[in-house]
Write a structure and sequence with these properties.
The protein is α/β, with parallel strands linked by helices. Helix content is 20%, strand content 24%. The protein has a six-stranded mixed beta sheet with strand order 1-12-13-14-16-15. A hairpin with a 2-residue loop joins β12 and β13.
Length: 439
Amino acid sequence: MEVDSQKQLQRKQSTYLSFDENFEIQKEVYRGQQYSQIYFARLHMMRTLLYSLVPDWKSHLPVCTVLGLEEGKECIIVGTLYKHMKLKPCILDEYSKERSVTPLVKPHNFMHQDDYLVLEDESGRVKLGGTRLSPSVYVTGVVVALHGKETTAGDFFVEDVLEAGLPPQIEQSLKSKEDKYVVFVSGLSIGSSSSNPLQFQLLVDHITGHLGDEEEQGLAAEIVCLVIAGNSVEIPRGLLNGQNLASKDQSRLSEPIKELDILLTQIAASVLLDIMPGSSDPANFSLPQQPLNRCLFPGSATYNTFRSCTNPHCFELDNIRFLGTSGQNIDDLAKYSEAEDKLEFLERTLRWRHLSPTAPNTLGCYPFTDRDPFLIDSCPHVYFVGNQEKFETRLLKGLEGQLVRLICIPRFCETGVAVVLNMRNLECHTLTFGTQFSS
């Protein structure tokens, strides 16, 4: 059969730049350091930023430390918030004599009406009062500037709050007038009981241009990158008990990864592929998660299009900045604060200029000594989070003209949904794959 060379489709290309070095643990050496140093680094960087914003906010007020507060005198204090939570889990509760009192069912959210906020800097800490600062919105680890005064009870009555706000954004390149698409998928969970191999194979075939008519193949040729945002495999936890494994159990452990590699090899042969680790993947538990070892992917790693990335993951395609996580940071915020939807949590992290404010308090992270890698210094054009219950998206507009496409990527094994973003106008839609067998 002759192939008409004029009808052969060429896949579109994009310039790719990775900024994952900020999340890589290379020269850091663990010497038993505590987590106080990452909080000091965070406070130092954020305080410098907030001090620069104060003159445009309340230039007539003096800036004080917590120790320098005077009763009844209005001032501005800058520090790290700490939320005292009545229902927050404590490891010591497991050894309590009154274990029977604690409920056996774990709540999905640890909020309580008696929760309150405290502001802390190097000089001391002060309990915060007033209705301006809601404990249901803020979490431990957020750095803010507060306008208020000390009361006779020794609390700080908050009258106004200054957050860092969206960081500056590099100008989006408008040279490209052609459609180019990035596909996001997460929660493949290969190896789990809910995983459907045919469903993911349909996605692979669509991306590689083996599905549909000429029009659909033409659309597939405009896909320039696939991002897999965590939880690609699910390894049977019952086998990981510290005992030596029998040969059949060893094969059960490696089977999901082998199956994943076969599918990824088909994609890497056709298009740029970024894979991020998630909470269920064979990677380190604490953030930032380091790239999955390339030896796990003997097939796909032979292609230069294959990239094993960190979580969080930051990169640029044709001068469009992407930033995203596999979902742990947003899931943790949902446990310790409240919002109308998950997109509001994404918006808050951008306004706080911090990807994961609850780390290291309630979310595991590496004890950095001289920096906090989760600070956001450049506003992304696309901010995505994986392994969510459903697809959600919104276009966020900043005060200085920033435009950010917020995306919640659903778990593919449960929904069969992948998210497609058009880099030309930052619009996105879903691709849904389903399989139905007649009985």
